[in-house]
Amino acid sequence: MLWLAPLFPIIAALLLYRFWATSPSRLAIAWSAAAVVFLELAIVWFAEASGWSGVLNWNRHLQLGIGFTPLTFLAALVVPVVAAPIVFFAAAHEEPERLGRLIALLVGFVGVMQLIILARDLLSLLIAWEIAGAFSWLLIGHRFQDPERGRNASQAFLVTRAGDLGLYLAAFVAFQQAGNLAYAGLDQMSPVAASLFAAGVTVAAFSKSAQLPFSPWLFAAMSGPASVSALLHAATMVAAGVVLLMQLQPMLADVSWFGPVLMTVGLATALAGGWWRRHHPTQNACWRALLQPIMV
């Protein structure tokens, strides 16, 4: 039953887009989107209170699993809470051309983020991770008639895709060691395998969270609509890497370099962002200044 939490916003976005695509009413679009987001919040709350979980058996070695922990429950509540005012803003202030498409993508992205948060195995995480990349490309490149915006969307997509290869490395190492991709049992890896796994996960998290050396994609992504930057790059997608590292940290506690590397790269990213803001003032300086704390 817990599969309803990530799938509901995605299915609702697909179904309602049919009506939003031709709807001239900003108010109708806003209230329809908000209703989906608030229902998602209620589903998450009820699912946790009812002890829901979700497992789909792929074969005897692989399965798709999602579930709650105290951390993931809190994160799953935060996503729709943050998304609600953003979809209202988008419906009220974004350009009317293809507004229904934009709002549908924003709502669908809520479901993708929920799957990233609730995933209890690397296969579920990989599926959600890839879909999130596709959604971000569509959202950043929403104004695709402008060639520069299209190039910026592709740049952001390709840079994050390069970092995503680390997640495939981590999944390969985990499967080779344990014979499955479940989070449970990752702490039983050999020291060398644990270091390789940690390296892959760290690279993937750094790319999604715009840490060095992947930070430039975040500035390219600013060419998208303001609501896209608010939801993806200031609130949810850049937090995906952080949530992933927090979930896996107990399994990687014995990797000696893991914590120091996270702190060093986070500090370096913050300092580099501040330096860039200081020495490269532009007409987007306000936006760039707001993005610096995100890159920590």
Structure overview:
This protein is mainly α. It has one domain (3-274, 284-294). 71% of the residues lie in helices and 3% in strands. It contains 11 helices and 2 strands; from the N terminus they run ααββααααααααα. The protein has helices at residues 4-20, 26-49, 70-93, 99-118, 122-140, 147-178, 191-208, 216-220, 226-248, 258-279, 285-291, and strands spanning 54-57, 63-66. A two-stranded antiparallel ribbon has the order 1-2. A hairpin with a 5-residue loop joins strand 1 (54-57) and strand 2 (63-66). Helix 1 (4-20) packs antiparallel against helix 2 (26-49) and helix 4 (99-118) runs antiparallel to helix 5. The radius of gyration is 19 Å and the shape is globular. The relative contact order is 0.11. The mean pLDDT is 86.
Topology, please?
Blueprint: H1 4-20, H2 26-49, E1 54-57, E2 63-66, H3 70-93, H4 99-118, H5 122-140, H6 147-178, H7 191-208, H8 216-220, H9 226-248, H10 258-279, H11 285-291
Antiparallel strand pairs: 1-2
Helix pairs in contact: 1-2, 1-4, 2-3, 2-4, 3-4, 3-9, 4-5, 4-9, 5-6, 5-9, 6-7, 7-9
Question: What is this entry, summarized?
Answer:
Helix content is 71%, strand content 3%. The protein is mainly alpha-helical.
Low-confidence stretches: none
> Distance between termini?
36 Å
User: Can you count the beta strands?
Assistant: 2
Number of helical elements = 11
By secondary-structure content and strand pairing, the structural class works out as mainly alpha
Strand composition percent: under 5%
Major β-sheet strand ordering: 1-2
What's the domain count? 1
Task: Describe the oligomeric state of these chains in a short phrase.
Answer: single chain
Write down the overall geometry: globular
Average pLDDT rating:
86
Helix content: over 70%
The Rg value, from CA coordinates, equals 19 Å
Quick one: biggest sheet? 2 strands, antiparallel
Spell the H/E element sequence: HHEEHHHHHHHHH
